[in-house]
Write a structure and sequence with these properties.
With 220 residues, the protein is mainly α. The chain starts with a helix and ends in a 16-residue tail after the last helix. The protein has one domain. It is built from eleven helices and no strands. The longest helix is centred in the N-terminal third of the chain and has 25 residues.
Length: 220
């Protein structure tokens, strides 16, 4: 029965993740699809570059909120004591595990939204919302890394990749839980794959940098 409940959590989390706020906002408020502009991505960065900071803020807020709702619903469907019975032999933190499980499918939905032709964002904001819900200290550390990188290199994509790579490291340092680390590694893989084009441009030296104080074309 718990397996069935977890399957339901996965489906609901994926569907919530598929509510891509970049696409929704651009269609409703601008009468166009943000994926037809800029980098062609439906995430926060392209929304901000295409329509301004307010739209970027609304997009990131929506993408963070949906994963938090997914996690809240997960705990309503699967009581922690049931999950403990199921994962008893693994000796893992079941609360964090369930948050990560729901977050994982929300991120997958964000990147591959069934409502928008399976073409969404890159999962950074949605993953960030999950991390905030899991451990605010880890979220602050990763945000600080992103901020320092942005000031030093001005590459948004590099900061996103660094946060993804450091996430499993932080999970190990804070929890020493191999199951949580393995789940975190799945997040890392998903986000890195979503940034594969950015990685190619970074290696080739053709990735554009964010410009502070003036508008310019970028490709993150």
């Amino acid at each position: 029965m718990t397996i069935v409940k977890l399957f339901l959590v996965a489906v609901i989390s994926y569907l919530l993740g598929s509510l891509n706020f970049g696409v929704i906002l651009s269609r409703k408020l601008k009468k166009e699809d943000v994926r037809d502009r800029g980098s062609g991505n439906a995430g926060t960065t392209n929304m901000m570059r295409s329509y301004g900071k307010v739209y970027g803020f609304l997009t990131i807020a929506g993408d963070i909120l949906k994963v938090m709702v997914a996690i809240w619903i997960a705990f309503k469907i699967v009581p922690v004591y049931e999950l403990k019975k199921l994962l008893d032999s693994l000796d893992t933190n079941c609360v964090i595990c369930l948050k990560s499980f729901a977050g994982l499918f929300a991120v997958i939905g964000h990147i591959f939204p069934c409502f928008f032709g399976f073409k969404g964002g890159k999962g950074v904001a949605t993953s960030g919302g999950m991390v905030i819900f899991i451990n605010a200290k880890i979220a602050l550390i990763l945000l600080a890394v992103f901020g320092v990188n942005l000031v030093v290199t001005r590459y948004v994509s590099l900061g996103s990749i660094l946060m993804a790579v450091l996430y499993p490291v932080m999970m190990w340092l804070f929890y020493k839980d191999i199951v949580l680390v393995l789940i975190a590694l799945v997040f890392t893989l998903i986000v890195v794959i979503a940034h594969r084009d950015n990685i190619k441009r970074l290696l080739n030296g053709t990735e554009n940098k964010i410009s502070f104080g003036k508008k310019s074309r970028k490709t993150e």
